[in-house]
Amino acid sequence: MGLSKKHQCYIAVPSHIINSLSSSHLQNMLLSGKKISPSLSLKLKLLLTNPRFWIFLLFLFGFVGMWLDFVPFLQNPCSISHELFTVNEKSIVNEKSEFWQQPDGLGYRPCLDFSKASREILNDKTKYLMVVVSGGMNQQRNQIVDAVVIARILEAALVVPIFQVNPIWADESEFSDIFDLDHFKNVLGNDVRIVSSLPSTHVMTRPVEEKRIPLHASPEWIRSHYTRKLRRDGVLLLRGLDSRLSKDLSSDLQKLRCKVAFHALRFNPSILELGNKLTERMRSKGPFLALHLRMEKDVWVRTGCLPGLSHEYDEMINNERKRRPDLLTSRSNMTYHERKLAGLCPLNALEVTRQVLYLLRKLIKALGAPKGARIYWAGGIPFGGKEALQPLTKEFPHFYNKEDLALPGELEPISKKASLMAAIDYIVCENGDVFMPSHGGNMGHAIQGHRTYAGYKKTITPNKRQMLPHFLNSSLSESEFNKIILDLHKDSLGQPELRKTGRDVTKYPVPECMCNSTTIHSSM
């Protein structure tokens, strides 16, 4: 089938090249379809003997060749010829191997049918809940979800959450810098009243501040401790909501959690637009794997693990941990080796390489995982810099992050804001054809749940606890290792998984927030 329409192509040439050519030279190059007069013929000869013309021509051919290889970063590249366009299409189709196929969602779909709506809650203008959220963007996101649910439990209006400046990243972003505030209010309009600030009737009220919320508090505990104080003072201030509200709530409150996480917390339009642009550039040559690497310095310090780059780097982490023992998250009595065998440490670059190599090149050749698979890696700069990534970049040259994909100046307005940079990573990873985190954490859990809710996009969850002993077993042949890894992950590819007691519904939205024909009939 031929091309039915003519297309115009534009090739950008640096201004200093254009300026180096006289206007007569440019005019001669653009003339076509006319009879050449003797004077014009003389000018053409002069042009052909001009070394600047040949420099320009060599530059032009080199630019076109580079353009063909760099086409993924262009929005609407023009075809040089129909034949080249056809070849490129075939190369994209060949990447549609079984590796990129999505898991069977068993008919599950979002299902947020609330049992009742309480208008009196929305009309009450006497009780207000204020919350201060802390941590990185994904921690803040989790705390906002629970803040909305707590406001509903207390039948209070929620003041837009205040973001505490993080001492590690020094990011002063506010709610509206990261999320779409108007959308947040509109989506939750029938559930909880959201206000931007306290009304004049309460602005002089000193809020009752509570800091002693236990882990996994039940709605009954919340009501018994705060309802009377809230009615008396009108304003309640809560801090440190991370994991304070129970994971096991009533059906309506679990659905509200999902509604906040998957519908209300939409990113700021400018952030969403930039994240979608980077996703389009990443996918322009076919499907891609989004890999969340957690290899920053603070991750190694907090987890009690070592990066394994060199003795010097390990000593730096040990010294930082001794200087700041408060940063160690949990199980401080365990040694590094015990933590690693228990699956509590992030995969380092060498381990990620071996697993990704298997997933992309050895996950049974019949799956057709392409050798030149494109990988987007999310996360901050690894501890150890580029050296830490060498095992990955050596095996997978098509290895990009947001800085690689962005055009000059695109990231500059947000480059010093860790939460906004994390939001860009979140958007690209959520839209990747396959997603794999090197370590769980808030972002990995949030994206897993979001991809599940969006329709069971393939998510590979590394089984570190059972996998790491095999990484350490040098006697295994490649075929034996591959078979073991395949068996360990056959049920960890994003298939429907029912939420178990104590697990977060925003990570496992089935069955509270998603249903299929079977669950619908059984509930009738």
Explained architecture:
With 524 residues, the protein is an alpha/beta fold. The chain is globular. The chain has 23 helices and 13 strands. It is 45% helix and 8% strand. The strands form 3 sheets. Strands 2, 3, 4, 5, 6 and 7 form a 6-stranded parallel beta sheet that branches. A 5-stranded parallel beta sheet has the order 10-9-8-11-12. Helix 12 (269-283) packs across helix 19. The chain starts with 14 loop residues before the first helix and ends with a helix. The model is unreliable at 1-36, 63-94 and 352-369 (pLDDT under 50). Strand 2 (128-133), helix 7 (137-154) and strand 3 form a beta-alpha-beta unit. The longest helix has 19 residues, at 51-69.
Topology:
Layout: H1 15-19, H2 23-30, H3 38-48, H4 51-69, H5 82-94, E1 109-110, H6 119-123, E2 128-133, H7 137-154, E3 157-159, E4 162-163, H8 175-178, H9 181-187, E5 194-195, E6 208-210, H10 219-233, E7 235-239, H11 251-264, H12 269-283, E8 288-292, H13 297-303, H14 311-323, H15 336-341, H16 349-362, E9 374-378, H17 390-395, E10 399-400, H18 402-405, H19 418-430, E11 434-437, H20 441-453, E12 458-459, H21 464-471, H22 478-489, E13 514-515, H23 517-523
Helix pairs in contact: 7-11, 9-11, 12-19, 13-14, 21-22
